[in-house]
Amino acid sequence: MTGLCAGRVVVVTGAGRGLGRAHALAFAAEGARVVVNDVGAALDGSGGSSGPATKVVEQIRAAGGEAVADGADVADWAGARRLVRHAVDAFGRLDGLVNNAGILRDRMLVSLDEAEWDAVLRVHLKGHAAPLHHAAAHWRAEGKAGRPVAARVINTSSGAGLLGSVGQGSYSTAKAGILGLTLVAAAELARYGVTVNAIAPAARTRMTEQVFAEAMAAPSSDGAGDGAGAGFDAMAPGNVSPLVVWLGSVESGAVTGQVFEVDGGRIAVGDGWRRGPSVDQGRRWSPGELGAVVPELLAKATPPEPAYGS
Questions:
Q1: pTM across the whole model
Q2: I want to staple 53 with a disulfide (CB 3.0 to 4.6 A). Which of 5, 69, 228, 288 is the partner?
Q3: Which of 157, 158, 220, 252 is catalytic?
Q4: What would the pLDDT profile of 125-136 be if each residue is shown by its tens digit?
Q5: Per-residue pLDDT tens over the stretch 66-91
Q6: How far is Cα 129 from Cα 7, in angstroms, rounded to an integer?
Q7: Any catalytic annotation for residue 175?
Q8: Catalytic position from the list 165, 171, 172, 220
């Protein structure tokens, strides 16, 4: 390893399993001190246990790294404040935040109930906003105190947030909201020395094992290896982590407000909403005029990619 993040302190939420676990291990391997945050809940967000986070911490320490476990609920405003405070108290500083925690309550819209909607939006979207708020407040205070800041935030969206996904209305909405939050935070926090980017990963985890059922037969252990050579497992969570670690390093300081799709050995820049073909007649349109205008504009526009499952 190169020691790309040597001396840096990074919080990873939802780090007890899957992508978060792979990120925590990868940061530690590059010299970062890691706060492994996880409430240890089931896939639907129920229950809780300190076991998953503790196991990751033990693995990092066994490899010679430094880590602490944290069980704060990141979707609770006070819990997110305690998480940021935990990092600073344990290691004296905070340099990076990887927002990764999430749950699933998949339903078609006509079958989705209010509690399921609220739960998914709470964990994914508020679970990004709350830690980001408190981390940003810490970094602003550091800057005002004259201490240099080179902080990094990496948010976790999804292809479902970019394109939509049938049967995942709440999840797609939350993940799209995370993209909007990323753009706003990147613009607001640049003055404090903070970059904010997002990833839209594809990997085999508890949340995607049904989607990638066919890939389950691929040769893999825990997905945290380098994935190189024969038997490359394109769906291993560890394939996503190198980009996350690089985005969390000082080296990525010129990159902010970007979205990256990443899976296997592929990295792509998300090309988001932008103004397309337009027409301006200099006065208010009447409804009757638009029947000819809108189809003409759509004919000039790049066709959107279909939602997953449509």
A1: 0.90
A2: 69
A3: 158
A4: 999 999 999 999
A5: 999 999 999 999 999 999 999 999 99
A6: 26
A7: yes
A8: 171
